[in-house]
Amino acid sequence: MAHMLRGAAAIVGLGLTEFGTLPERSHLEVMAEAAHGALSDAGLTVKDVDGLFVSNFASPFLALQAAEYLGIDPAVLDSTNIGGSTFVSHVQAAAMALATGLCNVALIAYGSTSRSGGRAGQTRGPLGRVPYEDVYSPRNPIGSYAMAAARHMHEFGTTREQLASVATSARAWAAKNPRAEMREPITVEDVANARMICDPFTVLDCCLVSDGGAAVVMVRSERAGDFPKPPVHLLGIGVGVTHDQIAQMPDLTVTAVAKGAPRAFGMAGISRDDIDVMEFYDAFTINTILFLEDLGFCAKGEGGALVESGAIAPGGHLPVNTNGGGLSCVHPGMYGLFTVAEAVEQLRGEAEGRQIDGAEIALCNGNGGKLSSQVTAIFGTGATV
Amino acid sequence: MSDNRTFDSPGPDAIYRAALENGAFQIQKCGGCGAHIFYPRAICPACGSTDLGWVMASGRGTVYSTTVVRQRPERGGDYNICLVDLEEGPRLVSRVVDTPPDEVRIGQPVEAFIGELNEEKVVLFRLAEAG
Hints:
A: alpha/beta, 11 helices, B: five-stranded antiparallel sheet, 1 helix
């Protein structure tokens, strides 16, 4: 028997702000623009929303702030923060709240001014002291991901050039996306020769720091056909966690995708061969290699060769991060919701010059902390439910 | 070795820090399952027992991974950040010092000592003497 959440809820509204530098704006203003966009897309207003899902690094009481700011009278609120994979986990929470009737219209929204900062701005990274690690100034999160990359190179012979292929693939996709921030082509040499940040990562192995916002509206699938745009149905979702502090990650070459993704596939009742397009939280180049391996698209250790083959770039057989990803499209501190946004555009057939022909099923993988939390969500068109 | 006072004051974190101030690098050992534990906990993450005691860390370990945090010389220059697997099992973040940071290699044996960073006593490592 199918899982009760399979096909229970669908995304019927999507809102995105401009990406890049949004000066003299507060994070709430950016979030409100995205939320308004998503609700307008669905033919709704804030007065229709009774489930609110928000999070950021700066505001412990963001759910209250956002409800007040937007004029929402919520029956369900969730501002859980598990790092940048939050928002993909919010899709799980929203689907549960919708399926059980706790709410009828769920809004998941994020806005940030990570680049511009300012009085009401966002911090640039996770807050909260990590008591046994921060004293060493590991430049988190970069240092932790860099050590995962170094370990992967040591164990499997993954090369500097293979890491760079992740960045050049993302950039090639971004070149097709008018919304993406960084659209000039780059080469493997450009990545390898860029300014070193934390070995082996240069600045081009690291995601952007942007201003920007995104929002989606979810409803129960039974009424998802009543909205202007084609619904994007949730088929499966799974959460996995391995650690908070990087020293507690059991194996730096195996992420919690290996735990969460089987839960998502099990719920969806599909296999990885059914996936048409994937959107990963590529905070750093090593992420994409690890996630491809942990999703089973290649054996452990072979992810570097897979990306180097061009598989994930435009024209490849495993399109990944068709918007340009956090590396080249946008990265406003927490990227999770932007993976969902791109999946929605692909499954609606609205991705224009970067559209994957006939895309019916999309996989999103949100990543949080220092490879700490992973949330895999599988979405499909109406034909897949 | 297990006195099972895990929820008494001072807590495991304070006991660890006090020992470090006095020049001792201690880790916990679980009386329930025998696992060595770092960082200090109130409950064994391996088995759930609260029967936790203290042992002196051997200080011997192996570099599990390493990076160089690149920093302009006027801000203090480059430095090493690493993960060390202690001989007893637990892994911790630290720095290998007294060696150029980009010459630290995965798999190298290292030895702990208690040093100071940002006016706080911390466990640091040096490359172990050959032989």
